[in-house]
Amino acid sequence: MRKSLFALASTGAFVLTGLAASPALAADDVRCTGTIGAIEVKSVLVPEDASCTLAGTRVLGDVRVLEDADLDAQGIDVRASVQAQRASSVDIAGSAVRSLVQFQEGGSFTLTDSTVGADVQVTKSDGAVSITGNTIGNSLDASENTGGVEVSANTIRVNLTGQDNDPAPVGGGNTVGGDDEKQFEGFAV
Q1: What is the pLDDT of residues 144-167, one digit of tens each?
Q2: How far is 21 from 24, CA to CA, in rounded Å?
Q3: CA distance 14 to 3
Q4: What is each CA distance from 10 to 1, 5, 15, 20, in whole angstroms?
Q5: What is the pTM of this model?
Q6: C-alpha distances out from residue 165 to 39, 45, 47, 120, Å
């Protein structure tokens, strides 16, 4: 039986701070500036300069992380995508994202022991990037990152690619269905 966000709020069964209306959000969307536990929501927006923790949360739409915001996501189930633009940090572990994961022009990014249904794209990050132990349904592209990139022990259905990372990426032991190319040549078993 699915419990609504408002039914759970009246019981105190979860902690959610910063719930507010916004023209960019529909009625069942939430702005996360604290913690959201094991409930179901339509979509999640982490506003600029905010920190959000998702713990066991089921998201029917997208998770969007805005500039200088932080996302710590553990054991989440996202039916659409996770997208971060100029975010300070994104950490996703033990989770399922049915569409893509995209991290652009941000700080640090970690994706660990998770399943992604489509692409993983990490570009122009200036923090550490670690992508380990995941199953990726399409391709992984890590390009133009300057904080160091590690890509290890992933199963990637199509291609593992990327260029212009400085320093050069490290890792290996990936199972790749297509090609491991450019700076990631030799990263497949």
Answers
A1: 999 999 999 999 999 999 999 999
A2: 9
A3: 12
A4: 17, 9, 11, 16
A5: 0.86
A6: 38, 29, 28, 16
